[in-house]
Design a protein that fits this description.
heterodimer; A: mainly alpha; two-stranded antiparallel sheet; 75% helix; 3% strand; B: mainly alpha; 2 strands; 76% helix; globular
Amino acid sequence: MLTTFAILTDGLVYAAYLFLVAVGLSLIFGVMKILNVTHGSFYAFGAYGAATAVGIYVERGWPDASGFLFMLLVAMAIGLVLGFVLERGVLRLVYGKDEVVIVLVTYAAFLILEDVIVLIWGPRSYGAYQPMVAAGSIEVGDLILSNYDIVLIGIAALVAVLSYWALKHTRYGRLLTVVIFNRETAAAFGINVTVVYTVTFIIGAMLGALGGAVMAPKISVTLGIGVEVIVLAFAVVAIGGMGSIEGALIGALIVGICRAAAVHLVPQLELFVIYAVMALVLIFRPHGLFTQAAPRKI
Amino acid sequence: MWSRANLFGALAFIAVAAAAPALPPWLVSLATIAFANALVVLGLVILWRAGLVPFGQALFYATGAYAVALLSRYAGWRDVFLLIAVGAAAAGIVAFLVGFLLARYRDIFFAMLSLAMSMILYGVLVKTETLGSTDGFHVESGTFLGYEPRGRALNLALFWLVLGLSAVSAFVITLYFRTVAGALAMPARDNEIRLEFLGISVTRLIHLKLVISGILAGLGGALAALAVAHVDPNMAYWTTSGGFVFVTILAGVGSVAAAFVGSLVFELVRSIAIDLLPGFWQLILGSALLLTILFLPEGLGSLFYRLRRTPEKGS
C-alpha cells in the first residue's frame, strides 16, 4: 500500500517535470514541424539562470516567495532572449529545407550552446537548493512529501490548463490552430505566419527554460544536464503524439508512473523502462497516442 | 570509368598501408580509430541515400564493441578475426530484429525511434553490473591467427587490419550501390509510393539496408573496442550517434571514399582542436556543422566534384 502510494506520488512529481520539458518541444513541433534539439539548451540555460538568481536572492536576503518568483522570471527572460536569437538568427535561414536537415541545424545550435554555457558559467556545478529547503515538507501517513514537489505539480497543472485555454479560447490560440492545420492556407488568408513562428518558438523556449528553473533546486546544476532532457522529452512527446498538448500530458504521466514503478520495484530497469514504453506504444500507434496518421501523398 | 576509381582507391589504400611504419604512432592510432568509425559512417551513407537519418547507429556500434569485449572477457576468445566476425554478426542480428519495427518508419520518426533503441541499450549497459556498469571494462589485446604482437607491432597490426577491412568494405559497398537494391535508394527517398506501384516493397528494401548498415557499424564498433582496448556505455549514447551523423554530413553521401576521408579529417581536427582550444570543441563542431549545412549541403565531398565539373562546362 505504502509502495503504491509512493509510486503514485513519485510518478506524479516526475510526470510534472516531464510535462514541463515536453510541452514546449511539442508546441514547437506542432506549429513549426521542427524537432528542436536545442530544447535541451533552453532547459540548461533556465537551470543555470535560476541557480544564479537563487544566489542573488539569498545574498540579498529577499523573502523566499519573491525569491522563487524572481528565479522563474530570470529563467523565462533568458528563454525569451535565447528563443528570439535562435529563431531570427539561425532557423529563419533554413525554413523550407528538409525536416531532418532542420533537426541537424538545431543539433548544431545545441552543441554550440553547450560550450556557451561553459563560457558564461564556467565548468563548476551550482547548487540552488534554498527554495526547496525553504518550502519544507509535510507528512502524509508514513510518507514525507516535499512541499516543493507539490508546488512543482501545481505549476505543471497550471501550465497545462493555461496552454489548453490559450489554444482553444484566445485569438492567438485559434490562429495557431489554423497554422498547425495548414500553413499555406493560413498564409493565404492573411495570417502573418512569420510572426506566428517567432512567437511560438519564443514561447516554447520560455517553457523549456521554465522547466529548467523549477528543476534547478532539486538537482545539481552541472554541465551536460541538457543532453538527457532532450531524449526524455522526445520519448514523452513521441508517446503522446508530436505536437499535441494533451499528448504531452498523457505521455508524461505514463512515463512518470512507469519510471517511478521501476525505481521502487526493479531499480535496474529505471532507464530501460522509459524507452521500452515508448517503443511499445509506437509499435501499436506509430504516430503516438493522440495523432491521426496522415495519408501518404504522391 | 568506375574501374579507374576502384584502381585509384586500391592504390590509395596500399600507399597508406605502406606508409604506416614510417608514421608516428599517435597518427597510426588516430587513423585506426578514424577508419573504424568510417565503417560506421559508410553504414550511415547507405541509409542516408534512401533519405533516412539514423540517430541511433550507436546501438549497432556498441553491440559490436560489447560482443568483442564480453567474448574476450568471459569466454577467453583472443583471435581478432573471430572476435570481429562475431561482433559484426551480433550487430547484424540486432539490426535484423529491430528492423522489423524501424523499417516501417521514415523521416523524423525513424530518427527518433532508432535513437530510442540505442538509449534502451544504453540504459541496460549503465545499470548492469556484469556488463561493466557506467565504467565499462578493459578489452585484452587480441592475437592475429596465433601471432601475438605487443606495443608498436600491435599498433601497426591493428591498423593494417582496420585498413584491410575498410578496403574490402569500400569495394563491396561500391558494388552494392550498383546493384538494383543499392540503386533503388534514391527513388525510395524521392517517392516511395511510385516504387511500390512498380512492385517493390520499400519496407523490405529499407530492412535490408538497415541490416547492412548494422553489420558495418558492428564491424566498426568491434574494431574500435580492440583499438581503444576499452568499452563503456557511452558507445551506445545518442551523442555517439550524433558524431557519426556529423561526419556523414561533413563528408557527404556522394561517394564511398568521402566517408573515409571525412572520418580521418574529423579525427585530426578533433585532436588538434582539443590540444589548442580545450573547452571549445563542441562550439567548433556545432559551427562547422551549421556552416556545412548552410553553404555545402552536399558535404565536403561535393567540393571535389564541383571543382572538377566547372571547367567541363566551359569547354
